[in-house]
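Write out this protein's structure.
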Amino acid sequence: MEYFVNCNTSTLETYTTALDKPKAEHLFRRLGFSASVATINSAVGSNAATIVGNLITEAINMPVLPAPVWADWNNANYPEDDDARRQLRREQFGQFQLDYANGLLQNNLRDRLSFFWSNHFVTEYDVYDCNGFLYYYINCLQRNAIGNFKTFVSEIGLTSAMLYYLDGVRNNGNNPNENYARELYELFALGEGNGYTEEDIQETAKALSGYTERGEEGCTPPTFDATTFNTDNKTIFGQTGNWGYDDVIDILFDERTTAVAEFICRKLYEFFVHPDSKEDFVNTTIIPGLATTLVNNNFEIAPVLTQLFTSQHFFDDDAIGVIIKSPFDVYYNFINETDFAYTDTEVASAVNYSRLLGQELFDPVDVAGWERDRKWVNTNFMIGRWLTMETIVDGFYAADEEQFRRFAMDAVGPANENTSNPEIVVRAIVDKITPKGMYDEQEFENCMSAFKIEDVPESYYSPDYVDGGESIWSLSMYPSSPMQVMLLIRHLTRQPEFQLK
């Protein structure tokens, strides 16, 4: 698949044109996991500011996942028998994973963001291996997903998941562990080699020390132990004092204000707009413009997202269909776009298939997270996408084949719901589940061939071939229509255009 160079030179000025269908679909593919025909139709004709404003307000006000009964359990709460303990913990983990995955599929901006942040402030469940720690980590992501970035950085570092994952619990002041200090600068706030030195890392590690009290029972949240805190003066970014945890955050945001703002705005841009943020115009105009908004709003995230998602730059044609879908995008976008009826079984399958394709929920590959974009479409992963999507499509068809007809009729629209023109039907489906349709006419003809099965004679599609005054074939009435839609979708899921959003 060709790598998309970022040629977008539109500005951050507000996009004021009423949304048409392609622009509305673009918005929902990026701010959530796509949307149904009905949702898109309701957005068409609105302006971006209204839709984005509603999504951001919803995200800010959305409650977090409620605490499970086991949220504050430690090892003493579990059965003494090893097998029984492991079984119970697996069941708790599986249900929580399913609850969070269902939340993602509800297509809200808050959890689209919490999903993004889980790949920024990375932890790996299999390292800390505690369900309670996982719950409070996700709770932190959800509460701060569209809040204040400085507060977010401060809170995430003291979650039990992060303290265990990056060795904060082993950061004794007399023998500092530098893991979290290094990743705080390199991955979370500044970027590799950007505005810090090895001495800054070493001194920061001393200031972050002391959170080493782990209690007598495993899976107990770490707490601060003053006896293991380094009380020496430390010099961080040129500032000297007996700094502690809160001081580190203050100094970071005070002394590296612009660097922090540009770093996180670049990450947001690459996730939501285009994976290439290094082109001159974006690098010198768009990223600094977003960073200025972040700084001017005291690191509140919502104003930056409002500016970005309502901009001419976001809605430029060169921003559409240029991000390769992650595994979760592949499955979740499809479910939302078709509006097929799903159960926990389909959600669990999507989570499992994503794991097989390199995107394991709650367990990224390492502290740098999933690499994204072209990494998702190596040879093995592409074959996996094809086969798993085939399984998902077949499962929906076996459950209720008529929903394929309903989806196609919705895509075509009420003005043509009884159409007997297969080209109109195929083009409507193609346009719904690909961002820009097929790249050339031959590829569209291949879609037509996939749709026109041998069981339906070509003459049945002709408006001149009628029975009782009506064409023999019609989407709404002909018995084979659901199968034809299913076969077209199976064909589309193997095409390059389907892999993009």
